[in-house]
Structures are given as C-alpha cells and as structure tokens.
C-alpha cells in the first residue's frame, strides 16, 4: 500500500482511500503532465463495455453498456443527421474572438465560437457553453461540483445537463494536440461531476460521465465511471477521429447519438443506506474502493514483456486483450483488467476479485474430467484468435463449479506474457522460459511434425497437465506449492535422460570416427607431398 492510501476500519465496509488534491483543470494539460493519483484509466485498445465488469451470473455495472455505437445505429437517420452536422462544423468560418482562454496565434487551428454555438443549437437545452458568457457562471463551484481533481474555479468549455445534474463535459481547444490536452482537462472535471453525483446519492454503478475533446477537425470520446463504492476511472471510448473522414465522422455521430440519449434519461438516487455509505467514502476528502471486490496487481508484479519498458508492455497487453475481448466466447473465460490505477511513481492493474473461484485441479473425478475438457476448449478458442498465453500453468487457470451441475466455469488469468502467435519473443521473455519449457515446446512441435510456434509453449503444458491430471500434487490450492509441483513435472524422466545419454554417446562415437578418418586423410596427403 502506498503512502497515499490508508485502510479505513471505521466504516461499514473495508475501504482503501486515496487523498484528492484539486488543481486548475488546465494544470492537467499534456505539457504539464500532473498525475491523477487515485484515478483509474483504460485504453481504447480494450473496447470497454459492461461485459468487462459483469459477473458471469449478474450484471454489476449498467451504464457503460450504452455507449458503443453498433452498425445498425450508424445507419439510422439520427446518426446520419449528426454526421452532416459534424461535417458542417469542419466547413464553417472560424471566429475565435469570443473564446477568451484560447491564444490567437493561428486562426486555422483555433476553435471558433461557432463550434460551441453549433453544439448548443444541436443539443438544444442539453448543453451549456462558455461562449459569450462569464467564466464564473460555468465554474465547477457554480455548478456545485467543487470536490475532485479540478478546482472550484475551473471552467469547462461546455457541459451537458439534464436540469438537475451535470452529465457531460465538453472541451474544445485550438491545436492538433487537442485530444491529449482537452481530454486530460475533461478527466479532471469529469471526476468532480462523478463524485458530485455519488455524494448526491446516485449509485456507483450508475455513474457515467461522457467526455468530449475536439478542435473542429479532430474529436475523441472518453468517459468517467466508478468502481464500488467510489473509485473513479476513465476509459477512452474511441481513437482520435478525423471529422473530414466519412467513416470517422459516422462513428463520432454514433457516439453523439448515444450521449444525447443518455443525458436525456434521468439519474436515480440511491437508498438512504447507500447514501450513508457514500458519505463515509468521501470522509476527509478521500475517495476509495472496496478491496474485498477488486484485486490490484502492482507494477513490481507486472511482467514487462517488452524488455522492461512498462509503457510498451502495457500497450502490448491491451492489444492482446482486445483481440480476445472482441470474441464473445473468449470474453466469458478471460479475466480482463478493469483499469490502470495511477499513483505518484507507479501503477496498478485493477481486476475483479474472483473470490468464488479456485486454482488447482478439482478433487472430484467428474469435475476433474469436465475441468480438463473445458480448459482444452478455452485454450483452443484463444489460439483461434491468434494469441498464445505463454504462462499456461494450473495456477493461472481458475475454476468454479456451476450451480446444480457437474460442469465447471474456467477463467484464465495473468496475461502479462501473452503474445500474438506471429510475434518474435523479446530476449527478456526467452530468458524467462526455462530450459524445460523450451524442450517441451520443441518436443511437442516435433511430435506434430512441424516447425515450433508460440502455440507449442501452451499446448505442451496442456499435454503435461492432461497426462498428470490425476496427480494429487496438482490439486494444491496454493499458488506457490502448485507452481512448484507443476515445474517438477516438467523435468525429463529417467528414460528420457537415459535416451539422451545414449544419443550423446552415439554422437561422440560418430564424432570420434569422423576425427579418425580426417587424420588418415591428412597422413595420406603428407605422404603424397
């Protein structure tokens, strides 16, 4: 636990809290790079929706499923109209005289007042903008959103409202780096909005604050949501979209359509008991999460597969996760990260805690049989998506018995080493693979009559698990002991060692005969000379 956190034992549930220090929203621009201590983040590479934080049996978060436009929506009249609206924004003449915070060095890159005014007209009474008004009227304090990373004096360029709550943040900037600058400011302001909703009694699972950053040509979408009971996280919903590109413009219109519909629907306040818990969460200007529900994997425990470069390794992890997440079958059997939690000088990956799952092979023979069959099918689905796990140990295979049946549900965890099957492994990954792991993979490829691939590293361990499925040592429920037992099974048998010695002896004998022949040839050449 970092020095920013303390474990609160005086509340009605166990909550780990983090201090919140407010700054001007502009301080979070990319060039200043202040850290959002206590906020989680998720890349758009992992196409976030409600499924990630759903329990297999029940939906845990209801709001986040609303905001990814599908192809049917993109063909609707409303989206086509919004696409035309966005296209007209790129064509209009720039007039930046009323945007007081923007520098006026390059008119072509400054956001004009028309930009905000057109949004206001299109969204009617749903949007308030700072164009032509006193900034104090749009400050976080005046909107009763003082608590959060943005100071009370911070003023967003625009907000979406339903008349009772601020529901959306809109930031428009003047340059091509708009998404990086605008979204960071919008994130700080969005945390204020989310926490205000929480303190007003809105349930944590209903918190969703869309964030929009644009400059008239480029636009990007993100959102703030919460983990139980009051831990905010931001996930980026789109790449940077180019409004002069017809497909990007259509996707942006789809996002706007979803957002318009969302902020039109009312937010419901929680019960009195939940509101009391919310007050406890925000005691002493701290926010927190329930460690009984979430598992945090620290940076020191994260395997940076790209030669210890954490940024590259995290992006690589998200790319691999995304390839699996888009497949519904894989999505049911893989534990995806909810977000990355920042602290002062490190990060933590946040996962749902699988409290009702176990590791180790089931003791019951029927469950054990169904376990290995399910594991084999799950791994097959993963490989079909072009991904290899590369650390397919029993300790990374979590299972539980499905209620009222002899079936088991499998969750594959710990994807730090995961790679696409066409990738070359870095030197760090090769060093991590033991000699026995490499030998087993090579032997599996030889038995299959082909060149070795990354799939063989997974399949060889699966074969080893199947071969030893009845070993009592593999029923060990503790990770350290289970890993030790499985590593021991990777050692070559006495027969294999004996065969290797015999092959080595034959090679040595053959090498000696070849050396003797070479000496005879040399002697004959000398005689001829």
Helix coverage percent of residues? Answer: 25-40%
Note the total helix count: 14
**What does the largest sheet look like?**
11 strands, mixed
Strand content: 15-25%
Question: Which class of secondary structure composition applies to the elements?
Answer: alpha+beta
What is the overall pLDDT average?
A: 77
Shape: elongated
Low-confidence stretches: 1-13, 44-65, 94-112
As a whole number of angstroms, the C-alpha radius of gyration is 29 Å
Tell me the total number of β-strands.
Answer: 18
Termini separation: 82 Å
Question: What can you tell me about this protein's structure?
Answer:
Strands 3, 4, 5, 6, 7, 8, 9, 10, 12, 13 and 14 form an eleven-stranded mixed beta sheet that branches. A three-stranded antiparallel beta sheet has the order 1-2-11, with no helix packed on it. Strands 15-18 form a two-stranded antiparallel sheet. The chain has helices at residues 71-74, 77-91, 113-123, 178-199, 246-264, 272-281, 310-325, 328-331, 365-384, 427-432, 435-448, 455-467, 479-489, 494-528; strands spanning 5-8, 15-19, 40-42, 127-129, 158-161, 166-172, 208-214, 218-227, 231-236, 241-242, 286-289, 294-298, 339-342, 347-352, 387-388, 397-401, 408-412, 419-420. Helix 2 (77-91) crosses helix 5 (246-264), helix 9 packs antiparallel against helix 12 (455-467) and helix 11 packs across helix 12 (455-467). Strand 6, helix 4 and strand 7 form a beta-alpha-beta unit. 38% of the residues are buried. The termini are far apart. The chain is an alpha+beta fold and 529 residues long. Helices cover 38% and strands 16% of the residues. Mean pLDDT is 77; it is low at 1-13, 44-65 and 94-112.
């Amino acid at each position: 636990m970092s020095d920013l956190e303390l474990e609160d034992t005086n509340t009605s549930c166990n909550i780990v809290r983090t201090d919140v220090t407010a700054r001007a929203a502009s301080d979070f621009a990319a060039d200043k790079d202040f850290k959002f201590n206590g906020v989680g983040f998720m890349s758009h590479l992992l196409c976030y929706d409600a499924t990630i934080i759903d329990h297999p049996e029940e939906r845990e978060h209801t709001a986040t499923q609303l905001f990814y436009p599908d192809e049917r929506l993109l063909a609707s009249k409303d989206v086509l109209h919004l696409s035309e609206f966005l296209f007209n924004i790129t064509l209009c003449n720039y007039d930046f005289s009323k945007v007081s915070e923007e520098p006026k060095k390059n008119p072509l890159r400054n956001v004009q007042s028309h930009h905000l005014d057109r949004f206001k007209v299109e969204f009617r009474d749903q949007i308030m903008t700072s164009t032509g008004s006193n900034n104090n009227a749009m400050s976080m304090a005046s909107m009763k959103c003082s608590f959060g990373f943005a100071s009370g004096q911070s003023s967003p360029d625009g907000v979406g409202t339903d008349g009772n709550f601020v529901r959306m943040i809109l930031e428009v900037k003047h340059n091509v780096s708009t998404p990086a600058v605008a979204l960071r400011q919008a994130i700080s302001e969005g945390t204020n909005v989310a926490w205000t909703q929480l303190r007003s009694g809105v349930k944590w699972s209903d918190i969703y604050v869309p964030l929009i950053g644009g400059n008239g040509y480029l636009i990007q979408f993100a959102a703030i949501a919460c983990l139980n009971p009051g831990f905010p996280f931001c996930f980026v919903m789109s790449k940077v979209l180019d409004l002069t590109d017809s497909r990007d413009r259509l996707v942006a219109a789809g996002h706007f359509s979803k957002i318009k519909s969302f902020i039109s629907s009312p937010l419901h306040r929680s019960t009195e008991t939940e509101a009391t818990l919310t007050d406890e969460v925000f005691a002493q200007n701290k926010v927190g999460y329930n460690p009984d529900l979430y598992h945090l994997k620290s940076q020191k425990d994260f395997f940076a597969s790209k030669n210890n470069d954490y940024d590259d390794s995290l992006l690589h992890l998200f790319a691999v996760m995304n390839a699996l997440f888009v497949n519904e079958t894989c999505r049911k059997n893989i534990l995806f990260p909810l977000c990355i939690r920042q602290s002062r000088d490190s990060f933590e990956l946040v996962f749902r805690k699988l409290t009702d799952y176990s590791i180790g092979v089931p003791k019951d023979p029927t469950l054990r049989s169904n376990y290995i069959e399910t594991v084999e099918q799950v791994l097959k689905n993963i490989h079909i998506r072009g991904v290899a796990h590369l650390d397919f140990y029993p300790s990374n295979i979590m299972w539980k018995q499905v209620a009222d049946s002899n079936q088991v549900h499998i969750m594959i965890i710990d994807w730090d080493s995961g790679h696409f099957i066409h990738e070359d492994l870095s030197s760090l990954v090769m060093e991590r693979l033991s000699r026995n792991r490499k030998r087993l993979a090579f032997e599996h490829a030889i038995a299959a009559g082909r060149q070795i691939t990354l799939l063989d590293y997974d399949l060889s361990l699966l074969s080893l698990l199947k071969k030893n499925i009845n070993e009592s040592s593999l029923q060990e429920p503790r990770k350290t002991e289970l890993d030790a037992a499985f590593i021991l099974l990777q050692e070559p048998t006495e027969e294999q060692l004996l065969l290797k010695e015999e092959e080595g002896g034959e090679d040595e004998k053959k090498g000696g005969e070849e050396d003797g022949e070479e000496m005879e040839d040399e002697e004959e050449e000398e005689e001829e000379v």
